[in-house]
Amino acid sequence: MDKRKEVTIYDLAEKLNISVATVSRALQNDPVVSKKTKKKIFDLAEEMGYRSNHFARNLRNQRTDTIGVIVPRLNSYFMSTVIAGIEHVANSQGYNLIISQSSESVEKEVMSARTMFNNRVDGLLASLAYDTDSMTHFDPFFKKGIPVLFFDRCADNTNATSVLIDNRKAAFEATKHLIAQGCKRIVHITAHTNRAVYTDRLAGYQQALAAHKLPFKESYIIRNNLSQEAGADAAEKIWSMSARPDGVFAANDNCAVGCMLALKKKGMQIPADIAFAGFNNDPVSTVIEPNLTTINYPGYEMGEVAARQLINQLSGDTLTAATNTILLRSELIVRSSSLRKQ
């Protein structure tokens, strides 16, 4: 393989017959070097294919200006909006991102954390996989004093900052709305409750039932991976129940939509026969007919807040570092899928 020799600042200095120090200052945009000389150096650098040796500079500076981001899934609308918010803040403060997905696997999450650590990221933002049950793969960061911040799916019993919404309250509001529309037999579709986010949504659902003196039935809890396909499978279970439910609260919109489509194929009328509420306010919620009632989860804002908090910690803000939990506002968006009392 032909690997051409790397162009150095010495090559640029020799070609232009100027000092190496001048080239170095110009490439760092030092005002000491005139604009005319800078232009000559930049033009030649581009022509010769010069690349700045960030690795060597980073070793000297003990920082990489890079933030690691680990998410469960990249093909999630919610996660893509979070990443957009993170990127907006990080880039504006001169940081680049390394993004990795765990694909809902703790093994991949452990590998991603190790890769981030070995790549010397200045800080780490993470949203945990379904099956993560230990935080030991983050210990190297904590021991080195590298800030770690969790968002959406957060770690329990750590001193790291968490950014999330009040999932219990949001689930309570969604379930209460279905009850107000006359639903008495409400199914809750959720993920396996390793993660507090789903434990809290289940608790909010139970709290709303209790507040309205409706019985909680374990048979009305359907646990799956919350995909659209899993929603269709949940529809089969709902269809086969002897006392058929008249309401569904799903822990995300994709699963709710999969369930709605499958039940519509069976001839059920929504919301007349069965009302629906989802979670996240994904674009799919306004495409499905009838449009889906959902909880608006501010993903972009969550990304911005998480990135800002992490960068503040990197800047040595001790007040920010002492903040353990940041709760963002969410809101119930009522649409046709739940409106039985028009």
Describe the protein's architecture and organization.
The protein is α/β, with parallel strands linked by helices and 342 residues long. The chain folds into 3 domains: 9-52, 434 Repressor (Amino-terminal Domain) (Orthogonal Bundle); 65-165 and 299-330, Rossmann fold; 167-297 and 332-338, 3-Layer(aba) Sandwich (Rossmann fold), CATH 3.40.50. It is 44% helix and 15% strand. The protein has a 6-stranded parallel β-sheet, with helices on both faces. The longest helix is centred in the first third of the chain and has 16 residues, at 77-92. The protein is elongated. The N and C termini lie far apart (71 Å).
Q: What key phrases describe this protein's structure?
A:
single chain; 342 residues; alpha/beta; 434 Repressor (Amino-terminal Domain); Rossmann fold; 3 domains; six-stranded parallel beta sheet; four-stranded parallel beta sheet; 13 helices; 12 strands; elongated
Mean pLDDT level: 91
Task: Give the CATH topology of the largest domain.
Answer: Rossmann fold
- Major sheet attributes: 6 strands, parallel
- Number of helical elements: 13
What distance separates the N and C termini? Answer: 71 Å
Shape: elongated
Number of domains: 3
Question: Could you list the spans in which at least 5 consecutive residues all have pLDDT below 50?
Answer: none
- Content-based structural category: alpha/beta
CATH class of the largest domain: Alpha Beta
* Widest sheet, order of strands: 2-1-3-4-5-11
Strand percentage, roughly? 5-15%
The CATH architecture designation of the largest domain is 3-Layer(aba) Sandwich
